Amino acid sequence: MADASSAVLPFSTRRALMPMWGQSPLAPSQWPERWSQLQAATLPDNALAYVHIPFCANHCVFCGFYRNGWNPESARRYTDRLIAELEADAARRAPGGSIQALYLGGGTPTLLAAEDLARLLDALRATLPLSDDCEITVEGRISHFTPEKVDACLASGANRFSIGVQTFDSAIRRRLGRKHPGDEAADYLAWLAAYSGQVVVADLIFGLPGQSEAIWRRDLEIALGLGLAGLDVYAFNLMPQLPIVRMIEKGAFPPAPGLAEQLQQYRIACQLFADAGWAQLSNSHFGTPDGGERNRYNLAIKSGAPCLAFGAGAGGNLAGISYAVEPDLARYLETPSAQKPLARMARAATGNHWLPVLQGEIETGCFRLAALPRPELTLPLLQHWAGQGLLWLDDSHARLTTEGRFWGPTMMRQLADTLQPANHAGHAVALHPHCTRKD
Description:
By secondary structure, this protein is an alpha/beta fold. It contains 15 helices and 18 strands. The protein has a 9-stranded mixed β-sheet, sandwiched between helices. It has a 4-stranded antiparallel β-sheet with strand order 1-15-14-13, with no helix packed on it. Helix 2 (72-92) runs parallel beside helix 3 (114-127) and helix 3 (114-127) runs parallel beside helix 4. Its cofactor is [4Fe-4S] cluster.
């Protein structure tokens, strides 16, 4: 096999289209009236809901989204305030519509006590118009997700669990700040899949410092044998603010693999999943053909589906307006229960309707040429990418190769910059920063 580090790459860096790219912030004085207008409109069918639990037991060195340490008293108070937010929104929301996917993310939702998990899920079911087949996901870590908590989630309707694992290599896990060795993580996932009888998915990261090709292959082979319904594989993003950057500088970690090595690890994952008969549901997500995995929330949110948001740091969008809930825990808790604790509202630019549509199609590996405006600008770019082996073109579609799917977020960003070069990443904020999501 050729040395991956010597490969010629089509891009010098991986970039992504941030959630609020190309949007215009609204002045705080406009927020109350605009929020009342959004609440008075009927919720569309097949909308989403996101609930943020902003607590972590420790700060993993690869994560840039840590905000609040774990405190049982604060968590109980937070659950109370979150339920009050749900009830206040429900009292003002126009009837109608439905929610096809509900996601409890973090942070670490499974840090909540079993009683608080149950009453939060019960409140969500009571206040939101969930569809009969709604995908209800609880994100968590193995350190705190006890059988008692699993039972509480199941009794309150959860039907999908997403567990952040990152790697099964015990040495790397220890340096990353994960408390359990790899064999315990694997045993737990197998137990959860069998015990819950529901969809269980796990996150793995490739391109971690010290993660050789052999270690990555072993991570995948272990994961494929655990009875999981789905797996997410994400490229490690060495963002400057991460604690792991300082550890690399001090020699506690070896340097992170480069983009060529990451691309090779992504190829390995795609091939192993294909050999195992798994389907590629998105650029980063794979599922068994008969395991019940729908990946509804993650696909729909990237396609710009309407999304209600609850909890400190959550973000949503309705009728072309994006909004963020107050991320500061103290300010969130102090906001009167009848008031939506908003921190930001922004309006999508006129004519940007193609952005979420195209982003969602790129995520599935095939997009319609009709989804692209201004073919005089975009077609030459697509032809260039076809010549680089990133996609195939026919009369109506562009279909991404494995290499193209690795570079999918970067290609989406370049298309957006080509069509609207005046927009800059300075407008971007993370709307609902799941700690295990790295792309």
